[in-house]
Write a structure and sequence with these properties.
The structure holds 2 protein chains of 2 kinds. Chain A is an alpha/beta fold. In chain A, the strands form 3 sheets. A 5-stranded parallel sheet of chain A has the order 7-6-5-8-9, sandwiched between helices. Chain A has a 3-stranded antiparallel sheet with strand order 3-4-10. Chain A is globular. In chain A, 42% of the residues lie in helices and 17% in strands. The longest helix of chain A is centred in the middle third of the chain and has 24 residues. Chain B is of the alpha/beta class. In chain B, 38% of the residues lie in helices and 16% in strands. Chain B contains 15 helices and 19 strands. In chain B, the strands form 5 sheets. Chain B has a 7-stranded mixed sheet with strand order 14-15-16-13-12-17-18, with helices on both faces. In chain B, helix 2 packs across helix 6 and helix 3 packs across helix 4. The longest helix of chain B has 22 residues. Classes of the chains: A alpha/beta, B alpha/beta.
């Protein structure tokens, strides 16, 4: 980021930094917004940081198509494989830690020259990385915790297993541009869903950069799709979209959340209402995972009454 | 085909049940009149006989009932779980003691055969109370946090197809978790819920913990919208479910919905045909097909279509339609005139769209609401009878060639409640079950229920699960020690 270069004034001729063109992350690719629009992203003091894509309804719909296309393979992948990939994302983030500390500091109005501010930004990035590792470990355990065999009173056995709901629209929290973002995306994909993520409207850059990490972490294209722009503008078509199965309203204010929840009723989307989060760094429960899981119960006759009391 | 054997009538005695000429609403432990004095009649669908006159709840009654439930909540939720458990065990026992009476009552008010109320509904009703009774003092082990708390007042709206069973599915977990209840039974089947109110009295349940408001959709809507209701549970049509989801939008009310279905019953060429035929019959003609998880779409592998249909038609010809109180009756009455006309309309549309209609020779009683078991062949996925929930004894037959095609056709619906798989090959069962987007998959069986097994749908069949450990979640606010969440 340019802000670091400013502190680097020395005798030698000042080097002009290379700006980054921030792009969306959809279907494993980095397109610009179909609308050709961008909006200005500034730091807390109002200094220009970058132009972020201002996604349109069409971008949202394209992202749904990409997420649906990716769902079969991702939900069908072994839980072990999904865990490996989530862990890989953590590895890749760890390698780019400094970049994200810088981006988070810029996004959230923390000064790179103040030690305590840098520490705050670093703590968030570290917590985000640790969060991914935590969810990586959940992929092959959640089914054991929330599913199981049921002791039915009759000559049958049945098994209840959790399955991903499908395509989930995730409105990332507005204030926690990176830790909050990772905290809402990881549980969705850990459980085998695919996601369309609407980045924090004010601070979208860490989210857009996350796409770069995801693209190089063995995560199949389309599993996570990241859009930036006006939350209300992008979320409205997602909440009404008939091929979206669930929506996480974390990043919506009360008025928007209600409007989106009403739209979501049209195809009975699973809705996770905005949950108050005091501290994104605290260990989350499993609620964010179970919110986007279905339970399937499969019955089969056993031909006997009980495991040992065979009638044969 | 006329019946080979003539059966002598074997009616169950009506004497075991004493239906009063009129009933009130059950609020705060008392039977009371509706605030506006309104009443409605409930009739027996098999004879159109008026069984009783029942108070009709309105908005003011919802207000009263919610207030009573709120007041009762304080003490009820503070009771040790082990004490709540004992109340539920008492209720379960009394249901067992009175099960014959309740079975006859349900058959009279609903029209379903006595063999179903006696052998399916009532045992399951008691089993659900027993099951959830045992959870009441073990909630910290249920996996919803170490200190799970009830939500408050639960507003519950249930349908007419399994009046007492749906009541049990809703009330048992609500009470076990420490919530109090305002329940609205359906307008065509209010009686068993009112008898349940009497069971609450016998069990000594504290006043206001359970309130019963017979009434119409407006009472249900008022209950769902009431600002002091913390939890809404609904079983019924998808259209109403969507309306309820809109109503609770933007509130903190927890919502679970059990909605419609269009279950696929998939029969592969290696299936045990005779068993499959029994399963198909059970899947769609159980409770006259008025079952949200009914297997209303038969998907049969093309190579065995003729053989299967011959067997199925032969079997349908042996079904006995008539007096629901007769112990030998397989097909009872349709629940209401309104429902009968809905079925009739959809079936006529099926014929108009070119599907081939078949029914066994079947004598239809002259009074009451009846519909002969009906089979449609030459059905395509575009036909309305293959897409819309008929909620009647009407089976649409479609065919497939490969397992992939079966899965694609089975999933080609906005619903996702149930499915059946018939094959001798275990790996095929698991492979197909894994791909079906449905909450319950029955393999080589159909329409089996058990309180330990979660039930509920994918997609537009609603959300949340009832029954089992999963069913507790709908009535609990997860909590854990400070700072952990």
């Amino acid at each position: 980021m340019s802000t670091v270069d400013k502190n680097d004034k020395t005798e030698r001729a000042e080097r002009l930094s290379v700006f980054k063109t921030y792009k969306l992350y959809v279907g494993g690719k980095f397109p610009r917004s179909e609308s050709g629009r961008v909006y200005e992203v500034t730091d807390a003091k109002g200094n220009w940081l970058a132009n972020a894509p201002l996604s349109s309804r069409k971008d949202a719909r394209d992202a749904v198509v990409a997420a649906r296309k990716a769902f079969g393979a991702w939900s069908g992948a072994t839980a072990y494989n999904r865990g490996q990939i989530l862990y890989r994302v953590a590895e890749m983030l760890e390698g780019r830690r400094e970049q994200y500390v810088r981006e988070v500091a810029d996004a959230e109005g923390l000064s790179p020259s103040k030690k305590s501010d840098t520490a705050k930004a670093a703590a968030q990035v570290d917590a985000a990385i640790d969060r991914l590792v935590w969810y990586a470990g959940w992929t092959d355990k959640i089914a054991q915790v929330v599913g199981g065999g049921n002791p039915v009173a009759g000559p049958f056995f049945n098994l209840s297993s959790p399955e991903p709901t499908g395509v989930v629209a995730v409105l990332a929290p507005q204030e926690s541009s990176f830790l909050g973002l990772v905290s809402v995306v990881a549980p969705v994909i850990a459980t085998g869903n695919t996601a369309i993520v609407v980045a924090s409207e004010k601070s979208p850059l860490p989210a857009l950069s996350l796409g770069e990490v995801l693209a190089t972490s063995d995560l199949p294209g389309g599993v996570v799709n990241i859009l930036s722009g006006r939350t209300a503008e992008i979320a409205t078509p997602l909440a009404a979209h008939q091929d979206v199965n669930a929506i996480d309203l974390a990043g919506a204010d009360d008025v928007l959340a209600k409007e989106l929840e009403i739209a979501a009723a049209d195809n009975l989307k699973r809705v996770l209402r905005p949950q108050p989060v005091d501290d994104w760094a605290a260990t989350p429960g499993i609620d964010r995972m179970t919110a986007f899981l279905e339970t399937k119960t499969v019955w089969h006759p056993t031909g006997s009454l009980g495991a040992s009391g065979s009638s044969y | 085909m006329a019946s080979v054997f003539a059966y002598a009538p074997a009616p169950e005695s009506r004497g075991v049940v004493d239906i009063a000429p009129s009933y009130g609403l059950f609020i705060d432990g008392e039977f009371v009149e509706a605030a506006d004095g309104k009443v409605f009649k409930t009739v027996s669908p098999s004879t159109e006989e008026v069984l009783s006159e029942v108070a009709q709840a309105g908005e003011a009654d919802v207000e009263r009932a919610v207030k009573a439930a709120r007041k009762a909540f304080e003490k009820w939720s503070a009771l040790p779980g082990s004490e709540r458990a004992k109340y539920l065990f008492r209720i379960a026992r009394i249901i067992q003691e009175r099960s014959r009476e309740l079975a006859v009552l349900e058959t009279l008010d609903n029209g379903k055969p006595i063999k179903e109320t006696r052998d399916a509904d009532l045992p399951l009703v008691a089993a659900h109370f027993f099951y959830y009774a045992g959870w009441a003092d073990k909630l910290e082990h249920a996996g919803f946090g170490s200190n799970p708390k009830p939500l408050g007042v639960a507003g519950q709206v249930i349908p007419w197809n399994f009046p007492l069973l749906m009541l049990a599915w809703k009330i048992a977990p609500a009470l076990a978790t420490g919530n109090t209840v305002v329940l609205k039974p359906a307008e065509t089947t209010p009686l068993s819920a009112l008898f349940f109110a009497d069971i609450c009295r016998q069990a000594g349940l504290p006043k206001g913990v359970v309130n019963i408001l017979p009434g119409y959709g407006d009472a249900g809507a008022a209950l769902v919208a009431h600002p002091d209701v913390n939890k809404v549970a609904f079983t019924g049509s998808t259209a109403v479910g969507k309306e309820i989801a809109r109503t609770v939008a933007g509130t903190r009310k927890k919502l679970t919905l059990e909605l419609g279905g269009k279950g696929a019953n998939i029969v592969f060429d290696d299936a045990p045909i005779d068993q499959a035929v029994e399963g198909i019959v059970n899947g769609i003609f159980f409770n006259q097909g008025q079952v949200c998880c009914a297997g209303s779409r038969l998907l049969v592998q093309e190579s065995i279509q003729d053989e299967l249909l011959d067997s199925l038609k032969r079997r349908l010809s042996t079904l006995r339609l008539g007096d629901p109180l007769d112990k030998n009756t397989d097909i009872g009455a349709i629940n209401s005139e309104e429902q009968l006309s809905r079925i009739t309309t959809l079936v006529e549309q099926g014929e108009a769209e070119g599907a081939e209609r078949w029914s066994p020779a079947c004598e239809i009683p002259t009074s009451g609401y009846w519909f002969a078991p009906t089979l449609f062949t030459n059905v395509t996925q575009a036909h309305r009878i293959a897409r819309d929930e008929v909620f009647g004894p009407v089976l649409s037959v479609l065919t497939f060639r490969t397992p992939d095609e079966a899965v694609a056709k089975a999933n080609n619906t906005p619903y996702g409640l149930s499915a059946g798989i018939w094959t001798e090959k275990g790996s095929r069962i698991l492979a197909v079950a894994g791909k079906l987007r449905a909450g319950v998959v029955w393999s080589n069986t159909f329409n089996k229920f058990d309180p330990t097994s979660p039930f509920g749908g994918y997609k537009e069949s609603g959300f949340g699960r009832e029954g089992a450990r999963h069913g507790l979640e709908a009535y609990l606010a997860p909590s854990s020690p400070e700072g952990e969440r």
